[in-house]
Design a protein that fits this description.
By secondary structure, this protein is an alpha+beta fold. The chain has three domains: 2-119, DNA Polymerase III, subunit A, domain 2 (DNA Polymerase III, Chain A, domain 2, Roll); 130-251, DNA Polymerase III, Chain A, domain 2, CATH 3.10.150.10; 254-377, DNA Polymerase III, Chain A, domain 2. The chain is built from six helices and 25 strands. The protein has helices at 11-21, 74-82, 136-144, 202-211, 266-276, 327-335; strands at 2-5, 34-40, 43-49, 53-60, 63-66, 68-73, 90-95, 100-105, 108-115, 130-135, 161-167, 170-176, 180-187, 196-201, 219-224, 228-233, 236-241, 258-265, 286-292, 295-301, 307-313, 321-326, 341-347, 352-357, 371-377. α1 (11-21) runs antiparallel to α2, α3 packs across α4 (202-211) and α5 (266-276) runs antiparallel to α6. The radius of gyration is 25 Å and the shape is elongated.
Length: 381
């Protein structure tokens, strides 16, 4: 294997692939700490895996002297390339006898130990029987608007991923950590042949979000088997194991008996929460919110009984509402809404609150728009 390339042409792909190779706790000699490098024809393939997810990037080359394949430590390769990314042309050559990859960058020469490609694990091959298609910017937005609600704890498997449910041309996406839940709905580019339900791991969702274009109208297709999801776009191919557990009917958790609702300015409310939360308890991050008689009041108190309060006028004139919420959860949700105003809906009984963008009822939405709603459970003090 021998070729030359501008590092600026491969650094983005190398960074994405190296991230998977360096993820998780691995033994020092684990082969998945390496990247599989393969030159075939006029293409360079970079592939990595952590046994649960595999990412391959294919990059066109111009200057290829010979083909070949090997594996090399991801972090070492990444560091060498990042420190030489301003060099116009860098030469790569595999010395099979010495089992080293020689990198020549402006007369700086690196020799990095390699391991044979036969040691590199393959990803389980399964027949992909179902698929769904939507715009790249749709999928990117769905991931960004849901992944922050995914649990970082391991006690319930179904809370550790992003749930995709498709029927006809409707796609619903759910994520939850047991205290808050994201509920998103959008339209597919084409109907699915049969209902589909799949739970993507957090890592898979993050990696998919990193390889798609946030502003692209180009389509992207997710293909599914019973155990695997595969995504191919923008020169990348990603395969990931799914979380195969029974997923509850989360629609039953969404309160239907809405008793009151309030429309508030989003940025102003975020500002007020940031002010008042300074003295909130660090254990529960709680802020008590009161609405009524044309006023809203926010209050926080810590274990030293230090208190912060704020009161100002609002449009709500109904009966008094009081609820305590985790201010970090509220702020995170509001920062993922893109409207000037948002709506708070209060069910009866008052065990949670629903937050959503405030959109005029007669305003026509584009076909690829995403309808979002977030449920946050109240804090019981």
């Amino acid at each position: 294997m021998k070729f030359s390339v501008r590092l600026s042409e491969i650094l983005k792909q190398l960074k994405a692939v190296a991230k998977i190779a360096s993820s998780g706790s691995k033994k020092e000699n684990d082969i998945t700490l390496n990247i599989l490098m393969k030159v075939e024809g006029k293409e360079l393939s970079l592939k990595s895996t952590d046994y649960n997810i595999e990412l391959e990037a294919v990059i066109p080359l111009v200057d290829v002297e010979s083909e070949g394949v090997t594996s090399v430590n991801a972090s070492k390769l990444m560091e060498v390339c990042s420190r030489n990314n301003n060099i116009e042309q860098v030469k790569f050559e595999l010395d099979e006898n010495s089992e080293v990859l020689i990198i020549n960058s402006d007369n700086t020469v690196y020799e990095i130990r390699t391991r044979t490609a036969t040691e590199f694990p393959g990803f389980p091959e399964e027949e992909l029987t179902q698929s769904l298609s939507l715009k790249q910017k749709q999928l990117k937005a769905l991931i960004d608007m849901s992944i922050f609600c995914v649990s970082t704890e391991d006690f319930r498997d179904y809370l550790r991923g992003v749930r995709f449910e498709a029927e006809s041309d409707n796609l619903s996406v759910f994520s939850s950590d047991g205290h808050r839940m994201a509920c998103l709905d959008t339209k597919l580019l084409s109907p699915v042949a049969q209902p589909l339900g799949a739970l993507l791991t957090r890592n898979c969702a993050e990696q998919v979000g990193s390889i798609i274009e946030a502003n692209a109208d180009l389509p992207v297709e997710l293909k599914f088997s019973k155990n695997v999801v595969s995504v191919k776009c923008n020169g990348y191919t990603l395969k990931s194991k799914l979380i195969n557990v029974s997923y509850p009917n989360v629609r039953n958790v969404i309160p239907q008996n809405i008793e009151h609702e309030i429309v508030l300015p989003r940025k102003r409310f975020v500002e007020l929460i940031n002010r008042v939360s300074v003295l909130s308890s660090k254990r529960i991050n709680g802020i008590t919110m009161n609405f009524g008689e044309g006023k809203l009041s926010l209050r926080s108190e810590n274990k030293e009984h230090e208190v912060a309060t704020h009161t100002e006028s609002c449009s709500y004139t109904g009966p008094l509402i009081e609820i305590s919420l985790n201010h970090a959860y509220v702020n995170e949700v509001l920062n993922h809404l893109n409207t000037d105003d948002f709506t708070m809906r209060f069910p009866n009984p008052l065990g949670s609150v629903l937050l959503s963008p405030a959109v005029p009822q007669n305003e026509e939405q584009p076909a690829d728009s995403i309808k979002s709603m977030y449920l946050i459970s109240k804090i019981v003090v």
